Amino acid sequence: MGKGRLEAFSDGVIAIIITIMVLELKVPHGAEWADLAPLWPVFLSYVLSFIYVGIYWNNHHNLIHTVSRVTGGALWGNLHLLFWLSLVPFVTAWVGENQFAPFPLACYGFILCMCSVAYLILANCLAANNEALKLALGKDRKGKLSTLAYMTGIVTSCFAPMAGFAVYVLVALIWFIPDRRFENRP
Asked: pTM of whole model > 0.90?
């Protein structure tokens, strides 16, 4: 089947996810710089999550652009990814409201890890029927290393929350530049 509906549906869901996240940002009760200080954890968690959702949107676009058709398995793989992405606003708000407490931050990492696993599954479902994507992905060391890094961040978050958060930031930085494996694909 064609890929247009999958791409349009995914774009819509991702737009809703970003909308939900921004609606969680509350206006401060005051008009001074000092009134913004208590909101920094909420804003910082929002910024990182916005970047992550943007990274997934960008890489999802690259995946879909590379394939010529999708299968039923790929549709389910895509829904699996969207499910985990849809939980990002929840854990983002939880982390921000609890000022990077260990358990919410570990749960944040778990959701990021599951997004990574779901993305790997989707990529493999798509690559199974699309040789160009299979060649572009190669062994996907970057994707697998990211999943391992998230697991490290989860454990680290339990004992040193800001170090765990730094792991999540590091993974985002690794993916921030668009994946070059797809740049020269028609």
From this structure: yes
